[in-house]
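ugh ok fine here u go
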Amino acid sequence: MTNNLTRSRVLQLYKRLIKLSHTWQAVDHPAKTAEERLYIRNETRNLFRKNKHVENANELEEHIREGEARVELACHYKNPYPRLVNLPTYSLPPSHNRIRYKSEYEVEDMSRPIYLKSYEIKEETSDNEEPSKT
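structure:
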């Protein structure tokens, strides 16, 4: 029964995002409406395809929460693109001559907003791919 509930929540979220991509209106620059609609549609499809094999219930719940948070932020601020994040200074990376402790990594993870989880994964993979090409 839990799988059916989770499946229906995922499908509802997907439908909501696709409908949003059809009805989206750019507020600041009306000429960019088509570009922003395309961004919403492509981002939705890419992330849902990337995460379609996720089986862990906790991880699924986290992805659903991230999607819902991103929809709410986009609707509230009228901007579909990722928002800037201001992390506390104690969670910023230290200088190269100091060792980071486990608690510093934990604080950094806790202070990171949920709606940026999928962007961090993209950055890590793109950073790993660039050195191998050279």
